[in-house]
Model the fold of this input.
Amino acid sequence: MSIVVTGATGQLGRLTVEALLRRGVPAADIVATGRDTARIKDLADRGVVTRRADFADPDSLAVAFAGAEKLLLISASIPVDERLDHHRRAIDAALTAEVPLIAYTSMTRADTARTILAETHRATEEYLRERDAPAVVLRNSWYLENYTGQLPLALQHGTFLGAAGDGTVSAATRTDYAEAAAVVLTTEGHTGAVYELGGDQAFTLAELAATASAATGTPVAYTDLPAGAFAQALSDAGVPAELARILADSDLGLGRGELFTDTGDLRRLIGRPTTTLADAITAALR
Ligand SMILES: NC(=O)c1ccc[n+]([C@@H]2O[C@H](COP(=O)([O-])OP(=O)(O)OC[C@H]3O[C@@H](n4cnc5c(N)ncnc54)[C@H](OP(=O)(O)O)[C@@H]3O)[C@@H](O)[C@H]2O)c1
Done:
């Protein structure tokens, strides 16, 4: 059996490869792919097969996906207007290679969410249906790391900034999402499923601040801003303008409940409670 993972040079892909190894998949049955395989040489040293796969280069995809029984297609971290073409090329290559199952990492409520990010995921899911692809959709909510990564700045300034109002987000760790992906790739009965994956305990950004305060002993607040002001604050902090616009737009979606899920799909797939915000903050502080 060969399981191909795209984006293995990135964080979620690498964690999924690690989770597959932990689940006992022989290293030689895992194909870790990325645009630059030098970045996953350590995986090759452990016996994992590494191949170059660039969504912009169909020839590389044909080679990378050959012989795959399962494919984890991780959405690309590139400008949003290029993502759909990339995903379509990857799906086309997987169908040409007759891959029996494509697992695609999408986003919470991609079918109805109105954010810029959800649009590409919705279109990719539609393309999978249009092409009648044997697929399973892993709709991941936000990563907890999106917030733990902001801790140093939040502690320094005494506040998290956002534009999410009192919306709740079902964030979970990348490790938990990766473990769920590994379960889907190593067990049967997932074709056609759409999993809404998120943490067991959704939280507001004010609750995020309260949890950070309790964990650190440093008072941290949450400051809710109009989306434009939030995007400007991100730009001022060095975030590229386009990304700042997308992040502010995502916070508006969060406020509308578009990153909230209470399906329990993640917990069920990984067979344990999801990592809590408090535990993720404690781990990040270490
Ligand atoms: N749920 C969330 O909170 C959240 C947050 C951010 C992003 N995301 C989405 O989830 C995905 C995985 O997250 P992550 O944290 O693992 O992101 P990441 O660390 O940035 O990894 C993204 C991966 O996509 C690969 N990629 C980019 N362009 C590609 C192309 N043309 N062909 C093939 N691969 C390409 C990258 O390869 P290179 O090493 O070659 O660049 C990298 O391996 C992201 O790509 C993004 O779509 C979700």
Observations:
- The pocket of NAP is lined by residues 6-7, 9-13, 34-36, 39, 53-56, 74-78, 86, 105, 140, 142-143, 146 (CB under 6 Å).
- The two ends are 38 Å apart (CA to CA).
- The domain at 3-139+174-197+262-269 is CATH 3.40.50.720 (Rossmann fold).
- The first strand starts at residue 3 and ends at 5.
